[in-house]
Write a structure and sequence with these properties.
The protein is mostly helical and 188 residues long. 76% of the residues lie in helices and 0% in strands.
């Protein structure tokens, strides 16, 4: 296997350092000098391999997207509802590092329409993927609700809040994804 180019290695090293700085201090307090120090690189090399702060944020989002897409691509199209639940609760929203960075990105997105649009597209892709992984009768809103439950659970965990029973939360989500639409309509 060929050795990755030095530029690719440096870029990854700088992005990992940026991610660590964001987790430690948040986006607002992270400077290029902080990232350079964390990466053990000169500030000029950080700018050379990544660019300015906006470029660095874009590169970090791309890095997070690549992680999420790799997780989603690893799931076969004909997965069961149980496998979709495992994907949501134990993979996509179970990485505290990624969750911390995403929380910071959400905060920035409140003031940046382009970033808000990018984050929205990420979650839309996830909702679409979940709707294709679930039973054939799934509709967009049910997939959206399942993603919202998993994300909400991860967000609350980040705040130190946990459900009384994670198994019950999974059960509610399982019911949401598995119940045929025709049965749901009869109860209303």
């Amino acid at each position: 296997m060929a050795r990755p180019r030095v530029g690719t290695e440096r870029r990854e090293q700088i992005l990992a350092a940026f991610e660590a700085c964001v987790i430690r201090s948040g986006f607002a307090k992270t400077t290029l000098a902080d990232v350079a120090e964390e990466a053990g690189q000169q500030r000029s090399l950080v700018r050379y391999f990544i660019g300015n702060r906006e470029d660095m944020i874009g590169a970090l989002i791309d890095r997070l997207l690549e992680r999420a897409e790799a997780q989603l691509q690893a799931i076969p199209e004909n997965d069961s509802v149980e496998q979709v639940l495992t994907l949501l609760f134990e993979h996509v929203f179970d990485d505290p590092t990624t969750n911390a960075v995403i929380m910071e990105l959400w905060y920035l997105a409140l003031r940046d329409a382009r970033l808000r649009q990018r984050l929205a597209s990420v979650y839309e892709i996830l909702v679409i993927k979940v709707s294709t992984l679930a039973t054939a009768e799934q509709e967009h809103d049910r997939a959206f609700a399942a993603v919202s439950l998993a994300f909400g659970s991860a967000f609350f965990r980040y705040l130190g809040l946990r459900p009384n029973s994670p198994d019950n939360l999974r059960s509610v989500t399982r019911h949401l994804l598995a119940e045929p639409l025709s049965q749901k309509g009869k109860r209303q």
